Amino acid sequence: MHTPTSKALFRPLFTTLLLPSTALAVSLTTLSPRDTPAALPRVASISYSGNGCPSSAPEVDKLGSWSDLAFQMNAFDAQIPGGTTSSTNCEVHVQAIGCSAGWQVGVKDVYVKGHLVLDPGAELDYYVTSFWSEDAGADVTVSGSVPNTGMTRLDEDVTAHTSIPEDQVVWSQCSGTDGALGLLNVNFRVALLADGDQYGYFGKDADTTATESYGSRSLLRHNLPPDRRPSPSSNATPSPSAACSGGGSTDPPPSTLPPAQFSLGRFGIPLNAAAVLYSIWAFLWSFWPQAYPATASGYKWASPIFGVTLAGSLVYFVVRTRHTYVGPVTEVEGRKLHAR
């Protein structure tokens, strides 16, 4: 519970943390006055939902102000076997207002911290999903896992950090003259898994109050001064000035969009078309061999067509369409792994 660096994104921002007696904390890093809005956002209202913090009795304490916002969760835990639940979630709904006009906010980094106990063979999976209610269809989910692959019980505090690539950040609406950014929803869920009766626990340390946390560093973006705008040839995400002033989309033009991880490219379409047509011909021939009699001439052409298509596809993939993974990357106790 999806990195090219964009010159149009401003990175003073805040870090949000959630802890069980836990805290969703926000710490603002200040660069220069022109990198931050004249008026920072503030929290107008907060609500909770989920079996880890039910709205009827959330057992969540709000701490700090916008620059160091925190939510301490006092009853968030999951346990196997025999626990009340092996999966626990808490969703925080934050209404943000008071920001200078023309700014947007997006979640950039996610932190998960808690006390973990796992018998050998057990595993903890976590998921963080964030979205804005004003555009609920646009969301981003990061996830990771902490398995115990050793021979002894794991019993320690663990911390995981996932950074969302800036081209996958989900942005709020542009703040207007009223400073409203919208309703941010962040859902945190953990699940304990085991293939037997192994013991697993995630939550508060038995000897302390709050050890579990998750969080997010948010980005703010606004119109770029002329001297800081990316050049037309840059692949960086353009300034959102057009969207925040009603002038158009913040997406770069199609010619500047980075290719997908498995992009076909210019020559991929004819290569795939040739492979599909050949496969259809071979399939039909297997049912009606008399319609396509096997001859020396036919075999003479079939083998080169198959070989050239296969070799061309492999060479084209290696040279042109293979790309470096740029999705979320999770670090767990100093180890890096790709988030699912």
From TrEMBL:
The keyword Transmembrane helix applies. Keywords: Membrane, Signal, Transmembrane, Transmembrane helix. Residues 231-244 have a biased composition (Low complexity). PANTHER family: PSEUDOURIDINE SYNTHASE RSUA_RLUA-LIKE DOMAIN-CONTAINING PROTEIN (PTHR38847:SF1), PTHR38847. Residues 213-257 are annotated as: Disordered. The chain crosses the membrane at residues 267-287, 299-319. Pfam families: DUF4360. InterPro entries: DUF4360. This is Uu.00g053650.m01.CDS01. Residues 1-25 form the signal peptide.
